[in-house]
């Protein structure tokens, strides 16, 4: 009997090792598949344009060149200003938007809030239908008067129905008895929210904050609509988009006038701008990765 137990234990350990090893191999291959495209972008950004035309994209540059980065950073004052504008909008928008979304999600899951279902339906309804581009433009530019104002980029991203629903789903995991006991002790709603709910909702805050920050960091469309070229500094993504557009225009104009510009690093510039835009996000992401995964998991289970 004891020998049979030992054999079952050995088989169980062998199965566990096999499953764990298979999982490590699968995850490693999957991570490699995710890493290869980034290495391809990085390698192409340091490749000479003529070599890209001859041999295509490569993980390692055949002919090393930094010409694309020289063009992107040709005006360092402009790109530094674009970085500062984007960082300020991202930081302010993330903190303000996270605070508003957290309050909204917490209020909508409170059993003692009578209008929670009606407001939740209203928020969900906006994910199915929208007013369209023209009313949105008239609202921001004409009625609010935010043309050539950074608030035109900041305000539209503060609230998101998807993130509100995610926050509401997460805060449902926090027992309502905590709120009731705090009220018995004399705490107000705002005190309960700040001192009890927010510390327990750290994974959700990290997850939603990352979504908001990425949205602001990658924002260029609203900036293109509402921020004219007369502004000294515009967000980073729009600045890089204009650099690519200008290089493409110059290359096409030279082709139509029979003036060869083979050395214009259009393809490598696209990769270089991708590296410039995503570099800070890649450096920042590892610090909140565990909170991000935990928040996504809890939000999915509770939703």
| Count of individual beta strands | 0
Q: Kindly report the CATH topology.
A: MetI-like fold
**Strand and helix order:** HHHHHHHHHHHHHH
Kindly give the count of domains.
1
Please give the alpha-carbon distance between the first and last residues. Answer: 47 Å
Number of helices: 14
What would CATH call the class? Answer: Mainly Alpha
Rg over CA atoms? 26 Å
Keywords: Cell membrane, Membrane, Transmembrane, Transmembrane helix, Transport
Membrane topology: Multi-pass membrane protein
Domain ABC transmembrane type-1: 83-288
Pfam families: BPD_transp_1
Written overview of the protein:
The structure is a single chain. The protein is mainly α and 303 residues long. It has a single domain, classed as MetI-like fold. It has 14 helices and no strands. It has helices at 2-45, 49-55, 67-72, 76-108, 116-125, 133-143, 151-154, 161-171, 176-184, 189-200, 202-217, 221-226, 236-256, 266-302. Helix 13 (236-256) packs antiparallel against helix 14. Mean pLDDT is 81; it is low at 299-303. One of its GO terms (cellular component) is plasma membrane. One of its GO terms (biological process) is transmembrane transport. Keywords: Cell membrane, Membrane, Transmembrane, Transmembrane helix, Transport. The chain crosses the membrane at residues 21-43, 80-109, 121-144, 150-171, 192-217, 271-288. It is a multi-pass membrane protein.
């Amino acid at each position: 009997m004891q020998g049979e137990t030992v054999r079952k234990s050995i088989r169980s350990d062998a199965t566990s090792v096999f499953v764990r090893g298979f999982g490590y191999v699968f995850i490693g291959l999957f991570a490699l598949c995710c890493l290869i495209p980034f290495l391809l972008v990085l390698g192409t950004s340091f490749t000479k344009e003529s070599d890209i035309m001859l041999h295509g994209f490569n993980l390692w540059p055949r002919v090393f060149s930094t010409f694309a980065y020289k063009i992107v950073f040709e005006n360092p004052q402009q790109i530094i200003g674009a970085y500062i504008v984007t960082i300020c909008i991202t930081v302010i928008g993330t903190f303000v938007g996270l605070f508003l979304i957290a309050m909204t999600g917490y209020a909508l899951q409170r059993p003692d809030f009578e209008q929670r279902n009606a407001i939740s339906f209203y928020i969900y309804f906006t994910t199915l239908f929208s007013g369209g581009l023209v009313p949105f433009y008239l609202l921001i530019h004409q009625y609010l008067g935010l043309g050539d104002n950074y608030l035109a980029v900041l305000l539209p991203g503060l609230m998101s129905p998807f993130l509100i629903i995610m926050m509401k789903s997460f805060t449902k995991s926090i027992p309502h008895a905590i709120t009731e006991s705090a009220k018995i002790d004399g705490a107000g709603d705002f005190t309960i929210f700040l001192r009890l709910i927010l510390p327990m909702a750290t994974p959700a805050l990290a997850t939603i904050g990352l979504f908001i920050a990425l949205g602001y960091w990658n924002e260029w469309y609203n900036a293109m609509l509402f921020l004219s070229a007369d502004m000294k500094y515009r967000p980073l993504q729009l600045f890089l988009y204009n650099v690519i557009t200008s290089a493409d225009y110059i290359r096409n104009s030279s082709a139509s006038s029979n003036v060869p510009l083979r050395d214009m690093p259009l393809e490598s510039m696209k990769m270089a701008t991708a590296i410039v835009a995503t570099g800070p996000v890649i450096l920042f992401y590892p610090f909140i990765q565990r909170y991000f995964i935990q928040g996504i998991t809890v939000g999915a289970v509770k939703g």
